[in-house]
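Continuing from yesterday's entry. The apo prediction looked reasonable, so today I'm repeating it with magnesium ion included to see how the binding region is handled. Same sequence as before; SMILES copied from the compound registry.
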Amino acid sequence: MLMFTLQLLVAGIATGSVYALIALGIVLIYKCSGVVNFAQGAFVMLGAYLTYGLVKLGLPAYVALLGAMILMAGCGMASERLVLRPMMKAPLVAVMTVTLGMLILMKAVCLAIWGPDQLAFPRLFPDGAVDVFGIFVTYNYLAAFVLSICLSVGFLAFYQLTPIGLMQRCTADNPRAALAIGIHTSNQISLAWSMSAALAGIGGALLASLNGLSLGLADIGLVAFPVIVLGGLTSLTGALVAGLLLGVLQALTDGLLTPVAEQFLRTYTSIYSAGALQQVVPYALLVVVLLVRPEGIFGQRGTERL
Amino acid sequence: MALRARDVSIRFGGVLAVDNMSLDVEPHEIVGLIGPNGAGKTTFINCLSGAYVPQSGKATWKEADLLGRQPHELIRRGVVRTFQNVASLHDLTVLDVVKLGQAVRHGNPMRQLRDMLRSERARDAELIRTILQPLRLAEVAHQPIQSLSYGMRKAVDLARALAAQPQILLLDEPVAGLTAQEGAMMSRVIRDVRDRVGCAVVMVEHKMDVVNATCDRIVVMASGARIFEGSAAQVQSDPSVRRVYLGEP
Ligand SMILES: Nc1ncnc2c1ncn2[C@@H]1O[C@H](COP(=O)(O)OP(=O)(O)OP(=O)(O)O)[C@@H](O)[C@H]1O
Ligand SMILES: [Mg+2]
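Holo prediction written out below.
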């Protein structure tokens, strides 16, 4: 039982680190433009499909992964330039609704190109597992975890330590002041979108390598929102911690809670499955946290700028 | 001629905030821009620094057009300003803000590359020594600006502007709300910058003692227009200036 729990924990941490990567992108965009990007899930899905497509074109897996990341950066920038920049003066609610439209559009495009069925995602990492004190960690999980953490840390270092990161932070802090002191804020927002889409794209490829490739990957966006609200919306560290937490909770729910719940349901009712219980967990957690701390775990009171 | 502004006008609804304003500033020169509240001084600076686009007029800096350009373009040309009301930035430290001033100036990739190769620490130390030290901000370099007094935040704003290596510095009330000591320090730093790098300065200010001690020449604005120009003594004795300040007919 303990071994089984630890095994679940490993899977949860690996998935959670990918969630964290994706959530980082949402927070990044929110911080510098005030927009909650509902299309982030679509970037995740598209990143995975592009990796798949590039491998199908004959590129080696790692090159395909890198290529997809670059294409996604371009896609993020194009979304900002073509869709969001023209809406600069529109109310935020309208802008967010448009991002929802982008989600639907990108899903439709992927459906048209790659069809509705689950596809076998190309193997990015070798088969096999390492044995850590009796817990088997497959290379897939290990690679997803290591890559996500490296990218997250690398991104945070960029954000905290470089002059461009500083301009990002200033734009996030006070866009009007940033503009006035000579920061090209619309370029910074473009940059935020392209970095965010690139991170999401990598996250998508990693998730697909863990769970397979389908349009359902876009729904990850629905998981990511509770994550960033939990993290406090403006806190990058919060996004990281909440992403990990959520991955673990989902894995534990799936492995431990769902069987118990199903047992219970079967004994006392005629319902046979509690299959999607892990999808409910983030929202249940969200409700609890928001009741206790409306500003999220890492949010500061009164940072809401909307 | 370094800065040459001609017949700049901007209107907000029914208010003609700047009315055919003209101003020339030579390199090395510190010009005081004074006038009663609402005279249009800040609005005029906003036009020169790219925050507003005036409806008519022309302004050039070393033969290049200024009006209608964005602040980030103007800063690369050395046109740098400070603010009457310093903006609130929650998360940044004093040193961060100064680095921002430097970062927005360099579109030059060679220089960026060189800066990147130098160690972070050496770069920080240089900024602290050359820019923060003279403004007595070295001790608070790593503190968030939100934690500083009003006077210190004004000094940080000037530090940011200086880090951008200005060729013309547009200062909007740099000593308003500061103690006499702080004001004297700011005045000293402004003159020192002019002496060292030879940048031109336009200083909007109400405190006449500081204006007299800092500026080479004074221009008076009222109701958006320029009404007088001269030395400190001339300004003080001119009847038209007395009229706008004292509200006499
Ligand atoms: N964005 C704006 N919209 C409408 N009116 C404006 C705007 N900016 C300035 N004004 C008006 O223009 C006039 C000049 O204001 P400005 O702030 O330039 O004066 P000032 O000389 O800087 O005054 P002070 O000494 O009080 O700072 C005022 O009547 C002001 O209300
Ligand atoms: Mg003013």
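Comparison notes:
- The pocket of adenosine-5'-triphosphate (ligand 1) is lined by residues B 12, 15, 17, 35, 37-43, 84 (CB under 6 Å).
- Chain B touches chain A through 27 residues (CB under 8 Å).
Will overlay with the apo model tomorrow.
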